[in-house]
Amino acid sequence: MIRDTSGQDVQLTPQSPWKNPRVLKRAGLGLGAAAFVVWGLVSWQSSNAVDGSLSLSRINIAEVQRGDLVRDLVVQGKVVAANSPTLFSPAQGIVKFTVKAGDAVTRGQLLAEVDSPELQNQLAQESALFNKLSVELARQKIQAKRQRLENTQKADLAKVDLTAAQRELKRAQLSQEKQIISQLDFEKASDDLARAELEYKQAVQNAQLEDEALAFETQTLELQVSQQKLQMEELQRKVDDLRIVSPVDGTIGSLAATQRSAVAANTPLLTVVDLTSFELEAAVPENYADDLGLAMAVEINMAGKKLPGEITAIAPEVIDNQVIARVRFTSNQPNNLRQNLRLTARVLLENRADVILVKRGAFLDQTGGRFAWKLNDQHQAVKVPITIGALGLNQVEIVSGLNEGDKIITSSADALENAQLVALKD
């Protein structure tokens, strides 16, 4: 009998390895090491994703809101007289001033007088010609009356001859019936009547034609007299204009000529400044020139008080990259205004209702209005692209990129220059 190894085998009951304390200790140490490694990797990745950090005390944060945006422009201007007429010499001559620069004048007061012998001589000649034509017209009227009287007399005489010829023919008819006169005498009486009728008719027609001719000649002289009167009145007006009077109540601004100097026609003599009406002369940057319009509302700031106004004129030319606009006060003009007073004005270019807007800040200049840093829930600021619209004095319109309720950084910082994600610290 061959012996086997069955007697050497021992049956063992299987045991779980987790019941062994030594195995459990080793497993716990392994899990702890793995968790530490994972935490380290996550922390390392998180620290590498943030491009920088900023302290909340060093930045400004604003919330995106919905509201009305007033697009405006703040400009500087100076107070000028709204009415400052310059008076010119009406003719060539010698000027004599009766006032000096700075004198207060009233409307209608004599300011200067121009002595023009040439113009006065022309007025005398035209007046003499007017008188001559007036005398000729009066003579023509008398001559017309005499001629009409003669024409009437001729017509009346022709009528008398006609009446006599009619009576002579009637007498000849009676005589012929009684055979007192011959046929030849009767025919002669008939011819005399026909001649008398013809002469009367021609006398009446000639009288009518003479009346028309006389009326035409009289009318021609009347037109010449009327024309000469207009020329004389025009010269008289020019002579009267040699006395230069003030058109407004105000002050003499400056004298453009010296006393008793020779001046040509249309030469500026002096300027009168009306101190009762002022306007603001504002310099607007050239890039806003297309946005300006007449009757556009303006707020004028004077010593902290806002005065309403409106644009009344816009200069067509650009000088030193600026356009000059005239603004008048629409309410009662302040009493303490004076020439060349410097004031600040706010031009209300546009009013947009119910738009997304946010407070203006230095981030617009830093990014050109193309990006903003929006705050998220992880105490971070994320760079997002935006599109801006109208720019107001304190707010800017957001066309796209942000929603109502978002918060963004409105200030600028070096850490935001090229950062995509910035951590915020208290």
Write the layout of secondary structure elements.
Layout: H1 21-49, E1 52-55, E2 61-63, E3 65-81, E4 86-88, E5 93-97, E6 104-105, E7 110-115, H2 117-177, H3 183-241, E8 243-245, E9 250-255, E10 262-263, E11 268-273, E12 278-285, E13 297-302, E14 305-314, E15 322-329, E16 342-359, H4 363-367, E17 371-375, E18 380-385, E19 387-391, E20 395-400, E21 407-409, E22 421-425
Query: Percent helix among the residues?
Result: 25-40%
Strand content of the residues, in percent?
A: 25-35%
Q: Structurally, how many domains make up the residues?
A: 4
Rg is 56 Å
- The fold-level CATH name of the largest domain is Substrate Binding Domain Of Dnak, Chain:A, Domain 2
CATH superfamily of the largest domain: Arfaptin homology (AH) domain/BAR domain
Q: Tell the overall outline.
A: elongated
Quickly name the level 1 CATH class of the largest domain: Mainly Alpha
Largest sheet: 6 strands, antiparallel, barrel
CATH architectural category of the largest domain:
Up-down Bundle
Q: What low-confidence regions span 5 or more consecutive residues with pLDDT below 50?
A: 40-48
Q: Number of DSSP helices? A: 4
Number of strands: 22
What's the arrangement of strands in the largest beta sheet?
3-12-15-14-13-16
Which class of secondary structure composition applies to the elements? alpha+beta
The chain-level mean pLDDT equals: 83
SSE string, helices as H and strands as E: HEEEEEEEHHEEEEEEEEEHEEEEEE
In angstroms, what separates the terminal alpha carbons?
92 Å
Family: Belongs to the membrane fusion protein (MFP) (TC 8.A.1) family.
Domain Multidrug resistance protein MdtA-like C-terminal permuted SH3: 355-414
GO molecular function: transmembrane transporter activity
Coiled coil: 135-245
